[in-house]
Amino acid sequence: MSVRPASVGSFLRAAPPDRLPEVVAEHLRTWFPVSATEVLLTDLTMGALWPVLEPGSPPGGPLEQRCFGSQQPVTDNGSRRLLLPLSTWGDRIGVLRVELTETLTGELRTEITSIADELALALRAAAKDTDRYRQVSRRQRLTMAAELQWELLPGRSLSGERFRLAGQLEPAYAMYGDHYDWAVTDDRLTLTVLNGHGDGIEAALLTTVVVNAMRNARRSGANIVEQAELASDALYSRHGGAAHLATLLLEIDLVGGTIEAVDAGSPRALIAHEGDIRAVSLEQQLPLGMFGDSRYEIQKVQLEPGDRLLVVSDGVHSAQPGGRTPYGETGLLSALRRTRLQPPSEAVGTVIRALREYHAGAEQEDDAVIVCLDWLRGTA
To answer: What are the PPM-type phosphatase domain coordinates in residue numbering (predicted)?
Structure first.
């Protein structure tokens, strides 16, 4: 008599990186009362979920979207269909859909949830070695600038015991130089948001230089002042001040809530607390790369338990389609109030959709970034 393997993980690690969905489908069909399986991945706009195993099939419907948005299991069809979120460290990848031949039990849900978690981790690891999953997520061709930007991103959401974090870029398929980056180490979260300079591939190349210069400094143990100064020197040495880049660098103490900030340009920060939204007042310093040997200073901001920090590029706060009032003065605040009960991963999408509506069909003149952080320390 065959004994069910303790985990699907060993099979996933032994499989080619592009065949992970098939491995999970075969495992479920062999060892569980499962008649059909589908893996659905989110597209770049986070607007739809697209099938991998049967790519010609329609995208996921309302139930799949509910599972993806809530990050909770969803059942349907008299408990014969199970939908499970695919996510790892808070980064939402997609949804696993399973059709059962028996009514779902608590034990069966637990076992299949474990398989979904193994699959999510494997998909994230495999993405650098196969194009299959990227091809599913892309619904149209990216510009070269956008290709560079997506390759630079750390992810689109991240969570831990003390925080939840998400970011989104717009437009997804034709970005220029706006960007965000983050990393968490030893209860400290480093977060940067950049306003690009120029258009197209040149803007993306500038951002690539700056992001990698800051990562190089950060990974060598440098603080955010040293990160800003190294990036500024790298940019100036190449362009002699003819090209520069605005950025906001933040290092957040996830235990005490203190933020150390270097404001080197135009990204804006706001803090929302129990419905009240206030701008973070920082003294603006010179953009990176404007002058040789630029020096920067740290400013401090204190978060309170339950605070929501939002950082937006000028493509959000300064958007002025058709000469209208800048989005940051009216529309942004209204959109942020609507996100009060949403997690950051949903809130960034709400703000981006509201920005699209503000343009009323007109093409956006600038790309846009929004990053949302909830500090959870002390709220439990």
So the answer is: 165-375
